Amino acid sequence: MKNPKTTSKPLLKPYFKAKQIEAGCDEAGRGCLAGPVFAAAVILPIDFQNDMLNDSKLLSEKKRYELRQIIEKEALAWAVASVSPAEIDDINILNASFLAMHRALDKLSQAPNFILVDGNRFKPYGDIPHECIVKGDGKYYAIAAASILAKTYRDDYMLQLHEQHPHYSWNTNKGYPTKAHRLAIQQYGATSHHRQSFRLLPLNEQLNMF
């Protein structure tokens, strides 16, 4: 029996436009019931290449952390920022995602002159032009790198919270709405790390929670 044909994944694109300093931005934790939303901004060298780098959701945890070391070492600039559950409840998760990305951009040691954003919406950051790229974390190195940093730093944060609140299994679900997470909320109630504006439980149960 012949081996099935295999095709190598094409490399991600190194830039959107040549001869400009591009920062890739992405967020992590937008769909979670608990914890902050994190975002990262990354400026990579124009000649950066890495066959392993891809959308963080498509990689194993081990590979994500391996790539984080490479990104932090080789990036021209990188930064990670977050927006708290209380802020999410106040301004909604979409605006909180934009704010987290803005905060990450604020922290960059080098200012970009163009921003690549994963997704289809973004709130302008000052007067710096931007481009929204749907599924951009699987298309451009800088966005993929930002997705790696946002994901791993948020996971680290949720592991710390798990030590304080082990009932919710944040070490495995990272705050996402799994069945076990919802059952724990039902049994132990919500914490200050839960997003009260999210549907944590069926509506009639949640009304009696806060």
What is the strand and helix layout of this fold?
Blueprint: E1 22-28, E2 37-43, H1 61-74, E3 77-83, H2 85-91, H3 93-107, E4 114-118, E5 130-133, H4 141-164, H5 170-173, H6 179-188, H7 203-206
Parallel strand pairs: 1-4, 4-5
Antiparallel strand pairs: 1-2, 2-3
Compressed to H and E, one letter per element, the order equals EEHEHHEEHHHH
Low-confidence stretches: 1-8
CATH architecture of the largest domain: 2-Layer Sandwich
Structural class by sheet pairing and helices: alpha/beta
Residue fraction in strands: 5-15%
Strand order, sheet with most strands = 3-2-1-4-5
What general outline do the C-alpha atoms trace?
globular
CATH class of the largest domain: Alpha Beta
Biggest β-sheet, characterized? 5 strands, mixed
Assign the CATH superfamily of the largest domain. Ribonuclease H-like superfamily/Ribonuclease H
CATH topology annotation of the largest domain: Nucleotidyltransferase, domain 5
Separation of termini? 63 Å
Q: Helical content, roughly?
A: 25-40%
On the 0-100 scale, what is the average pLDDT? 91
Task: Write a structural description.
By secondary structure, the protein is of the alpha/beta class. The protein has two domains: 22-163, Nucleotidyltransferase, domain 5 (2-Layer Sandwich), CATH 3.30.420.10; 164-206, no CATH class. It has seven helices and five strands, in the order ββαβααββαααα. The chain has helices at 61-74, 85-91, 93-107, 141-164, 170-173, 179-188, 203-206, and strands spanning 22-28, 37-43, 77-83, 114-118, 130-133. The chain has a five-stranded mixed β-sheet with strand order 3-2-1-4-5, sandwiched between helices. It is globular and about 55 Å long. The model is unreliable at 1-8 (pLDDT under 50).
